[in-house]
Amino acid sequence: MRALLVAAVSAAAGWLLAPSAAHRLPGPEALGTPAPATIKADRDYDIVDEEATARRRAEAAAAERPVYHQDAGAADEAVARVHAAFELMRDEERALRDDGRGARDAAALERRYAAQRDAFVSRLQVLVRDGDLTALGTTRFSEVAERQLADLARGALAGLVIEDRKLLPAAPDAGFVVRTLRGGRPEREQAFADASQVRDVAEAREELARTAAARLEKEPGAVRAAMARTAEAMVRPTLVYDQAETERRRYDAAARVKPVAIPVKRGEKIIGDGERIEKRHLLVFDGIRAQRKGEDLGSVRIGGAVVVALLVSLLWRFARRNVARFRPARRDALLLSLLYLGSLAAGFLGFAVVDALHERFPYVPAVALQYLVPFAAGAMIVRQVLAAETALLFALAMGLAAGLLAGQSLAYALFATLTSVAAAGLVRNNRDRAGLFRAGLGVGLVGAAVVAALGLYAGRAGAEVLLSAVGALVGGAVLLPIAVVGLLPVVEGVFGYVTDVKLLELANLNHPALKELIVQSPGTYHHSILMGSLVEAGAQAIGANPLLARVCAYYHDLGKIRNPLYFAENQRGGENRHDALAPSMSALIVKRHVTDGLELARHWRLPRVVQDAIAQHHGTRHVGYFWGKAQRLADEGGGRPAPLDEALFRYPGPKPQTREAALVMIADACEASARALEDPTADSLRALVAKRINEVFGEGQLDECALTLRDLNAISGAMVRALEAIYHTRPEYPDRRRDDGPAVHLVAKP
Fold it and tell me: 736-737 and 743-744: which strand pairing?
């Protein structure tokens, strides 16, 4: 059955979750013509504007500054070359001296200099005219001359030197980036806002000429000119445009620009009937076609069905294995399935109505109208008839499916899930129809808070956030309780569930069954009312349903209406009809009150949970008094006694299946025994309750319900306090004489 339900729910959900077939979207040929019909988005789309995207990427690339490489070691390299070249010539002078010819042989020294001309040029990496080499030779390539030439070269190559200023960015305020290289590796990077700190080669040489004229004024003219020309020849660009790095950075900047997307929400009108189709409409149509390219409606429905099947199956399997109180019966599974599909169908129709309302009131955002749909109704109904754990799992499954139905919207999934959880949590404490509206108001406030938070997180406008919050508040506070109030009677009638509202009706002492009980069996009625107090206290102590436990206690002995005088609480005058009957016959009559009670419960159409309590309140225990009497008579008969048929003296059961039914069993034994106590003190009541609970527990009657030893301890304390309140004694009041009459005697009753 579970497999069939999963298959049915998944198939139906897949059909509901699939977007409706879109209109045939107009193409470029329709530009300027009237639209054949109103076209709306069948789901959420993000349409990419290619032109705007390309424009923004081009702007981002253009904004990226060009990159230049600065050779920070150019000056040091020039100094090293000057030193290497001059050291070569000085070596020639030293070699001549070592030959014994002396460095004063100018002709020989000049010949050596001339012989090393090519090597000098190679080391200096600068072409030197013969005259300049001769002029430098007059200085004997001394360290002083080397230092002067090196200083000129270093000064000219210091800072940023470019081949030509035309190679810098054309815009004066464009700026550029300089990456400093040393040894071919990037050392640091610096941005420059203008080119005022950059010199071109011509400017650097002019500056060098002025510096040489000032620093070498004491040198002979030929030497001064040779050094100036040689230093000027060594001037080269230290700042070079890096096209590869610039293009890479511009490409990365363009790639960082996200595509310009036009958000189109589900149900949003793209163009109305008869409106002229413009370029912006075609842009949206092209984007929708691109995103729906290759999409098959059948595969979409299959995908939706599989998602729902996985969602339902995994949650069901997890709950069955890990949640102790999740033990749904077949009718529970059927109810959950129908509510799930019903909620999806209601959402499907609700969104269609929302689309119509948005077309009628276009100034109200469509997303604000979507929050009117009361998805939390299913979870609220489930919590009214099933456990909290089941309602929580239903809320989770319903919220995720609602997000899929709303165009795969994560925000709507969060809204539907949180409001469903709130509905399941708030409705449990409401005991009347008006309480459903109070719970709905709480759900509406929660929904408004969630919507406002999501709107602020998404950066929406204040007006849209406010309208969305109002929609969520109205949907929760008004539409949600109306839907639940209308559906709850159907659920109760079709599936036989009982809600707290129904239990309150049954707890009314004017119910026809209870009125019949007080007339036919007044002692049983009194016993049942007292038991109601006991089980209610016990249920409150262990977290069970106090109202359900009290109603079960009221009706548990309903079958005694048929034969009231065969039960001790209804007998008067000391007459006991069992004195003339065999113990087995007496046991049969006593046991019959269970089956009679079930017949009367069906006659008065009591809920199944109350009928179960009637059948289970004695479990499979013995009819104790008559079982003991039969054993005693068998022992007194003499000879070998015939074996007694124990089944004749044992209730048919079943054992209590719920905590409320177990409370009725315990309270039944405790109240009947407490009535027989001569002195119901606190100690005697405590000992009595402990004894009766131990008997019930020892017989294994509590094996099939979810009571723990801690629960039994809490039940014992609660029932002792309740019995003390019932059987406490009052002091005897003294006589009072009235001025206008005889004395009035007030005697306390137990």
Answer: antiparallel
Q: What gap in Å lies between CA 553 and CA 609, rounded to an integer?
A: 12
Q: Which two tokens stand for residue 98?
A: 């070592």
Helix ranges (DSSP H) in 177-242:
201-215, 221-234
* Token pair for 67: 């990159």
For 595, residues 6+ apart whose C-beta sits below 8 A from its C-beta are 559
Which of the pair, 351 or 558, is modelled with greater confidence? 558
Q: What is the DSSP letter of 185?
A: E
Q: Retrieve residue 484's tokens.
A: 């639940």
pLDDT in tens, 638-655: 555 567 777 888 899 899
Cα distance between residue 195 and residue 162, in whole Å? 11
CA 526 to CA 582: how far, in whole Å? 28
**Per-position b or e across 47-79, b if 16+ CB within 10 A of its CB:** bbbeeebeebbeebbeebbbbbbbbebbbeebb
Largest alpha-carbon pair distance within the chain?
Answer: 167
How far is 687 from 680, CA to CA, in rounded Å? Answer: 11
The answer to whether the CB of 491 falls within 8 A of the CB of 497 is yes
Phi/psi at 617 (nearest 5 deg)? -70, -15
CB atoms near residue 169 (< 10 Å): 16
Residue 286: pLDDT over 90: no
689 C-beta neighbours (distance < 10 Å), count: 26
Do residues 556 and 614 touch, judged by C-beta distance below 8 A? yes
How do 185-192 and 176-182 pair as beta strands? antiparallel
Query: CB under 8 Å to 327, separation ≥6 — which residues?
Result: none
Instruction: Say what the pLDDT of residue 640 is.
Output: 55
Structure token digits, residue 739: 């001025």
Q: What is the mean pLDDT of residues 163-177?
A: 82
Give 622's DSSP letter: B
> 416 vs 9, which has greater pLDDT?
416
> What is the spatial distance between Cα 6 and Cα 340, in angstroms, rounded to a whole number?
11
- From 496, 66, 400, select the one nearest 248 (Cα to Cα): 66
Q: Is 182 helix (H, G, I), strand (E, B) or coil?
A: strand
Q: What is the pLDDT, as a whole number, of residue 23?
A: 45
pLDDT at 641: 57
Query: Is 556:597 a contact under the CB 8 Å cutoff?
Result: yes
- Asked if 189 contacts 177 with a C-beta cutoff of 8 angstroms, the reply is yes
Whether the Cβ atoms of residue 120 and residue 85 lie closer than 8 Å to each other: yes
What six digits make up the tokens of 673?
Answer: 């025994």
First and final C-alpha spacing in the chain: 56
Q: If you average pLDDT over residues 450-475, what whole number do you get?
A: 88
Cα separation, 181 vs 183, in Å, equals: 6
Looking at 510-623, list the stretches that DSSP marks H as alpha helix, in order from N- to C-terminal side.
Answer: 512-520, 522-542, 546-555, 583-603, 608-616
* Among 435, 440, 556, 545, CA closest to 498: 545
Residues 27/283, Cβ–Cβ less than 8 Å: no
Token code pair at residue 586:
């007496």
Helix (H, G, I), strand (E, B) or coil at 443: helix
Helix (H, G, I), strand (E, B) or coil at 163: coil
- The whole-angstrom separation of Cα 239 and Cα 66 is 12
Distance CA 286, CA 249 (A): 32
pLDDT 10s digits, 394-421: 999 999 998 888 878 888 899 999 999 9
Q: Which residues pair with 276 in a beta bridge?
A: 34
Query: Rounded distance, CA 514 to CA 202, Å?
Result: 117
Distance CA 364, CA 91 (A): 95
Q: Is 574 left (phi over 0), alpha (psi -120 to 50) or beta?
A: left
Rounded Cα–Cα distance for residues 388 and 527 (Å): 32
**684/586 Cα distance (integer angstroms):** 30
